[in-house]
Specification:
Elements: E1 20-21, H1 28-51, H2 56-70, E2 77-78, H3 79-94, H4 99-107, H5 109-134, H6 143-154, H7 159-168, H8 173-198, H9 215-234, H10 240-254, H11 264-279, H12 284-287, H13 291-319, H14 323-330, H15 335-345, H16 349-380
Parallel strand pairs: 1-2
């Protein structure tokens, strides 16, 4: 991920751009920052393991990287590391989709559809609320720009994808990116600790199709999932490294093909680099970007989590699934982060992944049509 960049009506915005190192930078000075950031993140992960926090290999790096980045420490995330982390996590999740699990997920299509409708309605409501709160507090924005900024900031979709779509509609992209980054951070930090306080874990009856590591099979799994990731990237799809690896591994597992499990150290390393890639977004410039906007996003994110928890409890009564699984499946967090939480705590990994993946695809497809409809409704009034 290259970070977000958009001109915006108030000048260039690049507070997320400066923390990402592209693979074309080969000078030692460019390598030093990401390497030191990884070492710091590793120390934080080991500390969280000792403290027995939930998902320590992602929470530790995320927290420490966010804190030192906000304080002005020059942290950095190397893009290929983050891509590799998503590739590994996508492949690891795909191993859970055995034929039996696939039939279970297919039988819950109506619940997944309700989850998609809920996400679209919740995001639209979030955008309406942001527009009302900030109608007179964002100078320099026209009515159309304000509408686009608040709508795409509220949409529960991929951060980079929503920011790019928002840019096409003339929205202020720094505020859209900031809203998504802060929401994902708050959800990623809140829900795992809430699950730990709740005392739920090990509820997942589904186990990966492959349980042992076989080196030849692992090599084939790596090559095939890499081909899927590269194909998705070539096609310009969202989250190509995650989605490509997930779809290929899912297809193999659903077909009964068992190649190899993934080593525990590899998935831990993937969680670490994903935590770092999230943490480096929070620079001093990020904190000083429209404090009122960030405060309202934080408040709305907390309310959204509560509403999603209530929706999950209601859905659990009709599906017979444990509410914890549906909380993760319907939460307004990032797909990789929620799936990792489900995997580590063993809380319905395939179902959480299916809910989050279907929601991501639906929001990416429907976000613009819904925005056009909303804009037309506003112009009629």
């Amino acid at each position: 991920m290259r970070g977000y960049y958009g001109p915006g009506p108030l000048g260039p915005v690049s507070f997320l751009e400066t923390r990402v190192i592209s693979p074309s930078c080969w000078r030692p000075a460019f390598w030093l920052r990401p390497v030191l950031t990884l070492l710091l993140a590793y120390g934080a992960a080991r500390l969280c393991v000792w403290l027995q926090t939930p998902i320590p290999w992602m929470i530790g790096p995320l927290v420490v990287t966010s804190l030192v980045s906000v304080l002005g420490v020059p942290t950095a995330s190397w893009t290929p590391f983050r891509n590799a982390g998503q590739w590994v996590i996508g492949a690891a999740l795909g191993l859970y989709f055995t034929p039996e699990v696939g039939a279970l997920v297919a039988g819950l299509w109506w619940a997944i559809a309700l989850g998609i409708f809920w996400a679209l309605a919740l995001g639209l409501g979030f955008g309406v609320w942001l527009r009302r709160v900030h109608a007179h507090h964002l100078p320099g924005l026209s009515a159309a720009q304000l509408l686009g900024t608040t709508y795409f900031a509220g949409a529960i979709g991929g951060a980079s994808e929503m920011t790019l779509i928002a840019e096409r509609h003339g929205a202020r992209t720094d505020l859209v990116a900031a809203a998504h980054s802060l929401r994902v951070l708050l959800v990623t930090l809140s829900i795992p600790f809430a699950m730990q306080a709740w005392g739920v874990s090990g509820l997942d009856l589904a186990t990966p199709g492959a349980r042992e590591v076989h080196l030849p099979g692992l090599g084939w799994l790596a090559l095939l999932s890499l081909a899927g990731a590269l194909a998705m990237r070539r096609l310009g799809r969202a989250n190509p490294w995650f989605m490509g690896a997930l779809l290929v591994t899912m297809g193999l597992t659903l077909s009964g093909v068992v190649l190899s499990a993934l080593p525990g150290w590899l998935t831990a390393a993937a969680q670490l680099v994903i935590g770092v890639s999230l943490g480096v977004r929070f620079t001093p410039a990020f904190v000083h970007t429209a404090p009122r906007w960030l405060a309202s996003v934080a408040l709305a994110s907390a309310v959204m989590m509560l509403l999603c928890a209530a929706f999950a409890w209601l859905l659990a009564r009709f599906t017979g699934l444990h509410p914890a699984t549906l909380v993760l499946g319907t939460s307004p967090g990032g797909i990789a982060e929620m799936a990792i939480t489900a995997q580590v705590l063993q809380l319905g990994v395939p179902l959480v992944t299916a809910f989050q993946v279907c929601r991501l695809v639906a929001v990416l497809v429907l976000a613009e049509p819904v925005f056009r409809w909303w804009s037309a409704q506003r112009s009629v009034r």
